[in-house]
Amino acid sequence: HVQLVESGGGSVQAGGSLRLSCTAPGITADKCGMEWYRQSEGRQREWVASIGADGRTTYANSVKGRFTISKDTAKDTVYLQMNSLKPEDTGMYSCKTFRLGYPLGPCNYWGQGTQVTVS
Predict the structure, then answer these.
(1) Spatial separation of the C-alpha atoms in residues 89 and 27, rounded to whole Å
(2) pLDDT, tens digit, for every residue of 19-49?
(3) Inter-residue contact 110 to 4 (CB < 8 Å)
(4) Please, which of 26, 64, 69, 91 could form a disulfide with 40 given CB 3.0 to 4.6 Å?
C-alpha cells in the first residue's frame, strides 16, 4: 500500500519562494503520474500541476510561469517549486498519484497535505 508524504510548506511573504516535496515509494515502478492540488478554507479544491509517468508536465493558468513541477524517479519524489508567491496561493497543498486508464489501480492515493501561507 502506497503512502504519500508531503513536506516543505510554511509561511512566507509575497514574492517569496517555497519548494514542496512529495515522496511515495514504489510510484516509479507502478508507473504513476503525480499531481498537486490546493484548497483554502471555504474554497473548492483546485488542481495546480501534473507530471506524467513519461515526464510530461501541465499547469493551471493561475500558476503558469511561477511554479515548476519536477520529479526524481530514483527517489520516488515529486517537487513543486513555487516562486513569486502571492497571497492567493495560500492553501493546503496535497499531492496525488494517478495513472490514465487505471482509476482503481495502485495510482490512486492522496497525501495528507502541507500548509502554505503567503502574506
Answers:
(1) 27
(2) 999 998 888 888 999 999 999 988 999 999 9
(3) yes
(4) 91
